[in-house]
Design a protein that fits this description.
- The chain is mainly α.
- The protein folds into 2 domains: 1-52, Up-down Bundle (AhpD-like); 54-139, AhpD-like.
- The chain has 8 helices and no strands.
- The chain has helices at 3-14, 20-29, 36-48, 56-70, 74-86, 91-100, 102-105, 107-123.
Length: 139
């Protein structure tokens, strides 16, 4: 293993490991793309996710925004919602972040992302989610 892979694997472990959805996605593709997992670990986690400047929770919120905008990436949304929770982002904050994508990504993508979030929260016994109260003086 090279230094980038080791740094990336350490960062993934810090964020909750490579098991679950993320590990399953790589495992399902290993027979046709065995290097894909290594590239993801080296580049996404060893190079990008390990950079200074943003904490893990903020990085996950950015990642989720991009995934929502892309659409059709439910396994990645599921994995990164779990990672965001492990990084200390609350379920209520995640719901609000998904709502924030509405004017930019549209209803179909936000509804899809919310359905994935509901699944993640249900699997972690986090339902129902209490909405974050707004301060009416700032609206």
């Amino acid at each position: 293993m090279n230094e980038r892979f080791q740094r990336g694997a350490a960062r993934q472990a810090e964020l909750g490991g490579t098991g679950g959805v993320r590990g399953r996605v790589y495992d399902e593709l290993a027979d046709i793309a065995p290097d894909l997992h290594r590239f993801a670990v080296e580049f996404a986690y060893g190079d990008i996710h390990s950079r200074p400047g943003l904490d893990a929770g903020r990085r996950e919120l950015v990642t989720l925004g991009v995934l929502i905008a892309l659409g059709g990436v439910e396994p990645q949304l599921e994995a990164h919602l779990g990672t965001a929770l492990a990084a200390g982002v609350t379920a209520g904050e995640l719901v609000e972040a998904i709502m924030q994508a509405l004017p930019y990504a549209g209803f179909p993508r936000v509804l899809g992302a919310m359905a994935v979030a509901r699944k993640v929260f249900a699997n972690r016994d986090l339902l129902p989610i209490t909405p974050i109260e707004s301060d009416s003086s700032t609206n």
